Amino acid sequence: MPFPIGGDGAVQSWGVVTMKPAAAPTLIASVSRALELADAVARSSRPVPAKQLSRATGLSLGTTYNLLRTLVHEEYLAQEPDGFVLGPAHPSQAGLGPGALLARARAALTGLRDHLNAAAYLGRYADGEIEIVDIVDGPTAPRVDLWVGVQESAHATAFGKQILASLPGTERADYLARHPLVSLTPYTVRTSGELERRAVLSPGLSVDQQEYALGSKCLAVPVAARGFIGSLAVSLPMASRASAEDLAGQLGVAAERLSVTIGTEFTI
């Protein structure tokens, strides 16, 4: 005999009520794929090229390019010369994830490179270590070859020294105890005492004159925001005649703007 069916779709059988299986939601595959690409970019601390995104998501390169163009148009992503970063419309811009920080920093570094014709760097202190957030260079403004790891060479780089100078004394002592001051060139600082002396003599500005790599010089200023300790730096060939005073002034302006952006745009 037929079973009575209630108005809500329930099937009644000998006093037992069972529900009809709910209809599967209608999914739009292209939306799911686009979100997958955006999430892959958000998880990365570096710009991600289209080919790498294609491999990571298993999408064909053609499909990847089509979806990326749409995401860029809608400002969920932005395209840089070395890959894709988050755009201003992506929801994660409200947090200090690696992709969001990279997107905010990239604009400031690109502006410095173009204006000063110098490679630009942003470093930060996180989880007890000093790390590079991003580097922006170009054909006429090449970066310094980071032939020694950042953590082992903070005492020899301008941005590393500036971050160390910004740390509380106990944290700085702990860092130096874990990372001995290794001589990288004849000009490298060799003692923590000398490192401290230079920081006192030039507060708010750190300089590397061939201490990390022969033939190059770097200047760095602090970038400070709530929960963020970092440094903005530029590097130039030693032969450059650019005024250190002018460079420091322009670096300071850029660092102040970046500090405000990080402090107001990110919830830490």
From TrEMBL:
Keywords: DNA-binding, Transcription, Transcription regulation. Residues 28-88 form the HTH iclR-type domain. Signal peptide: none annotated. The keyword Secreted does not apply. The keyword NADP does not apply. GO terms for biological process: negative regulation of DNA-templated transcription. It comes from the Bacteria. Residues 82-264 form the IclR-ED domain. SMART domains: HTH_ICLR. One of its GO terms (molecular function) is DNA binding. This is IclR family transcriptional regulator. It comes from Sinomonas atrocyanea. The lineage of its organism: Bacteria, Bacillati, Actinomycetota, Actinomycetes, Micrococcales.
